[in-house]
Amino acid sequence: MKHDHQSTESDNSSSKDGSSKCDTCGVKSCNATARKSGESEVDFKDRQILQSRLCRIRHKVAVLSGKGGVGKSTIAVNLAVSLMLSGKRVGLLDVDIHGPSIPTMLGIEGAAIHGNEEGELLPVDVGGLKVMSLGFFLRNQDDAVIWRGPLKMGAIKQFLKDVDWGDLDFLIIDSPPGTGDEPLSVCQLIGDLDGAVIVTTPQKVATVDVRKAISFCRQLGVPVLGVVENMSGFSCPRCGEVTPILLSGGGKRIAEDMKVPYLGSIPIDPKIAEASDEGRAFVFHYAATPTAKIMRDIVKPIAALDTGKHAAE
């Protein structure tokens, strides 16, 4: 069960044994109130800072895919923007270390990252949406990031611990394809993800990998919020009629077989590619289109995670 965190004078003090308590939470069962066995003081303080940051974020949702090229980042962007347009306070974290595409899709490539007086990093604000990505730190957008696991883990931890996200209703996390270091780091660092949205395309080579992504979530205890089948047919730019190109329904069949929710099918719409290339959120700039309505319907079960009560209340 999630709890709202509020500072209290008694919990800002040190305990009798000299160990400090997290200064943002009055819940004594919080795992950041005491050192773990064998944990150094430095690691304990580090974990407290991370936990105090995460406590101000009500819901954390990862967007995953079994393989690349299925439009996962497109779904993540439009999911985040849809939630923001519904009145939620939303952050979007891009942890695709080797291919950070969120800055391009939101038209904020080259945005400068600033810090506050406490030395915390400030996310880039895009019309109220808070965004952080490794792409902001690359000197040249053509630079390749050649990192092994520990460096990736460190970067993701910094994005969660050292970024001043403030109070959020949702943090949407765009992960790279597969079940490797980045999604594993997210799950381990956050610890209590509300769930994952898994994106696929209709063809068999993609839907087979959906099973692996679902198994990954189950092994780590992450709820699967649902499967989205992207590029499911072609939406005519003139009349809106959807014409099957690839075999459709693969995502739905996998969801039924694996007993997870099916969130819906999004057709190939030329305006989606156009919006992404121009750095604009499709669901906002093409809100009147049938495809945008489909996206909003897909977002409804995710938005339902939040009762409307803000974390700071």
Could you characterize what this model shows?
- With 313 residues, this protein is α/β, with parallel strands linked by helices.
- It folds into two domains: 36 residues, no CATH class; 248 residues, Rossmann fold (3-Layer(aba) Sandwich), CATH 3.40.50.300.
- It is built from ten helices and eleven strands.
- Strands 1, 2, 5, 6, 7, 8, 9, 10 and 11 form a nine-stranded mixed β-sheet that branches. Strands 3-4 form a two-stranded antiparallel ribbon.
- A hairpin with a 6-residue loop joins strand 9 and strand 10.
- Helix 2 crosses helix 10, helix 4 packs across helix 5 and helix 6 packs parallel to helix 7.
- The protein starts with 40 loop residues before the first helix and ends in a 10-residue tail after the last helix.
- 43% of the residues are buried.
- The N terminus and C terminus are likely disordered.
Order of helices and strands: HEHEHEEEEHEHEHEEHEHHH
As a percent range, the share of strand residues is 15-25%
Rg calc = 20 Å
CATH fold call of the largest domain: Rossmann fold
* Structure annotation, total helices: 10
- What's the name of the CATH homologous superfamily of the largest domain? P-loop containing nucleotide triphosphate hydrolases
Largest sheet: 9 strands, mixed
Q: Summarize model confidence as the mean pLDDT.
A: 85
SSE class = alpha/beta
Q: List how many beta strands DSSP finds.
A: 11
Count of discrete domains: 2
Name the CATH architecture of the largest domain.
Answer: 3-Layer(aba) Sandwich
CATH class of the largest domain: Alpha Beta
For the record, give the distance between the C-alpha atoms at the N and C termini, rounded to a whole number: 17 Å
